[in-house]
Structure formats: structure tokens, C-alpha cells
Amino acid sequence: MSDKRVRWVTLAVIIAGAAVARVWALVRRGGPRTASMVYDDGVYVAAGGLLRHGRVPYRDFVFVHPPASSYVVAAVSFIARDPDHLLLTMRFVMIAVGLANVFLVMLIVDRHVGPIEAAVAGVVYAVLPETVFAEHTVILEPWLNLACLAAVAAWLFGGVYYSSTSKFWMVAQGKTMESCQAEMAGKSTAQKVTPFVVVFVSEIIIGWALYGLLVHMSTFTLRAGVISAVLCWFGFVVTTLTSNYAFHGRRPMLTVIDSVAWLGAFVIIGAIVGWMGR
Question: How many CA atoms within 13 Å lie on the side-chain side of 85?
Fold first, then answer.
């Protein structure tokens, strides 16, 4: 069996185990309707039901939580209209969120450490009592975990993107694989790591700036986050990159490659901030 197939089989087994743990925690004590509940279960279900009927959080009723979960509940309420059925359906939706978190944990660790460590991290997250409990209730923590993991995934996007376009990037830079390897060999570990740290910090600042923009707009939605991110990218990133590269005499292809990389990062960050913010 190839290494790639082993990784996918391992991923499937761990995600299946995570699903069993969360479903078992949901049904083992009298069924999903009587499983452990917290205060926020009722808060989010009630807020989603009100939103479906046109009542907007913060404007029409008191709501002290971020809005993303209430929008998800409102969307699900078009299918499960009865409050009892809505709570039941949302609990299974949260299990799906938990499985997405397991996948992202393993993806991130696999890309930066290795497949064995990814399997260990996936198992730990899959069976950790706190995550098993949180990810079958309608509370904020699973969404926060998903947002944080997605933010890291945005950082990883650059690595995946540049790996897939490395040949074109080297041609645009006027370099060869041999010259790049020789250049990296002459650098210390700190010099090699520093650019990745700078990019990660930069993306945190981008998220903070987009959040401030949406605060002034008083609009926190997935659509608003993505549109704002694309406009900021087009108005500021593309223009500055193009101007700087023109003065440096860089090839147009390099401008295109680097601009698209930042577009991906902006869209991912904007989607997270718009969906989960407030």
C-alpha cells in the first residue's frame, strides 16, 4: 500500500472514530434530546429561530455572543422548524464541525511535522473529553476551533500554492532549482524561518484590519467579509505589488503569482472574520 493511501486510510479511520465518540456521547444517556446541555444551547437555538422570523441580533433583541452560530441555526431552522427538532439537528451539525476540526488538525500537523505525528494529533483531538463534549452541543467553542484552524490553513495556503507554482515562480524570478538550493544552503536556520514568521504575523494584522473595517461597516457576514477582503486586495495589494515590481524590473508573471497568493489569503481571512466576527 502506498504512503498516500495509508495516510488517507488513517485519516478516514480516525475521523470515523471521532464520529463514533461524539454520537455515542450524544445518545448514550437517554438519547440526543436529553444529552448533556449547557446554557448556550438554548441561547443559540432561540436566536436562530428569531433570526429566521426576521428578528436581527443586537438590533431587535439582546444577544451577547458572536453572530455566526445564530446564522447557522437560522439556516437549519428552515429544515427543522420545530424547536425540539432544531436542537436535535444542530447537535448533529456540531458533530460535523468537530469532524472538520479533526481533519484540519491532521492536515496541519502532517504538512509541518509528519504523518505519524498527524495521526497522534488526530487521535488526541478526536477523543479529548472536552472536544467530544463541546462538539455535540450548540456552543461557540467548536466554531472557534474551526476558525483558528482555518486561519492556520490560510497560512498554509501560501505553502501549498507556491509548491504547486514553484516552477513558474522560479522562471519569473530568473532562478533555477540549483541556484535556489545553493541560496538556501548558505542561510542559517533563523534566516530560513523568519519569512514564515513574518507572513504569519502579517496575516494576523490583516485579520485585525479587516475586522476593524467590518466594525465600521457594522456588517458581519460571510459575504461582507469576502467582498471587503477582495476589494482590499485589489485596491492595496495588487496596486502596491505592481508598482514596486515595476520599479524593481520584475517580470509581470511574478506579480501575477504573488498577487494570487495574497488573494487566497485575503479571501480565507475575510471569510473567517466576516463569518465569526463581532
Answer: 7
Cα–Cα dist 76/178, whole Å: 54
Is 151:207 a contact under the CB 8 Å cutoff?
A: yes
Q: Which residues on neighbouring strands pair with residue 57, listed in sequence order?
A: 61
- Shared domain for 170 and 61, answered yes or no, is no
- The rounded radius of gyration (Å) of the Cα atoms in the chain is 22
- Read off the pLDDT band of 32 (50, 70, 90): low
- Reported as a single tens digit per residue, the pLDDT across 204-214 is 788 878 877 88
From 106, 140, 174, give the residue that closes a domain.
140
Instruction: Look at residue 244 and tell me if it is in a domain.
Output: yes
Q: Which residues pair with 61 in a beta bridge?
A: 57
* Residues 169 and 247 grouped into a single domain: yes
DSSP string for residues in 21-40: HHHHHHHTTT-TTSS---HH
44 and 133 assigned to the same domain: yes
Quote the pTM value.
0.58
Q: Give the C-alpha separation, 59 to 75, whole Å.
A: 19
